[in-house]
Input
Amino acid sequence: MFAKPVPGRTTADTEGDVVVLLIGMRVNHFWAVHQWLPVMLSMFRMLGELARDADRGLLGRVMLTASPRTYYVVQYWESKEKLYAYAHAPEMFHHRAWAVFNRKEKAGKARGHVGLWHEAYVVPEGSYESIYFDMPAFGLAGAHGQVPVERRGRYAKDRFAYRSAAGAEQKAAEKAG
Output
């Protein structure tokens, strides 16, 4: 249940681009539990659905709170295509949950008791770096694996400069093209 820290300095074992989704909710009116609790429970249900089917592309997640009102999940995805596929798959809970929400909004029954938001990013290789000290795999390393920092560079500038074999080939092709 509790991961043991990995001693020393480590970094995420990422290859290629990184897809990050921040998704969350804000409780606008605490007394409207009947409005925001179903939204919160829906998020847990979607995360469970994704955990049961690794082929959907969710590599890892971290649940956070920004305030007593705002809760969110940082999600790391295999690709933006897999993220889109999950979001639009009619057999998955996300699709049904948004259909219910859209009907409520159209009927004027979404009363502003709960706010919803998401931000999605595709971060190209060479535009991210990470370091962990005496930490279990967490965040990006929890999603992609964890390696000793020396494998990617002791300094942030070295880790930013790291290129996987595929990333190096792509960079060379871009220069040549």
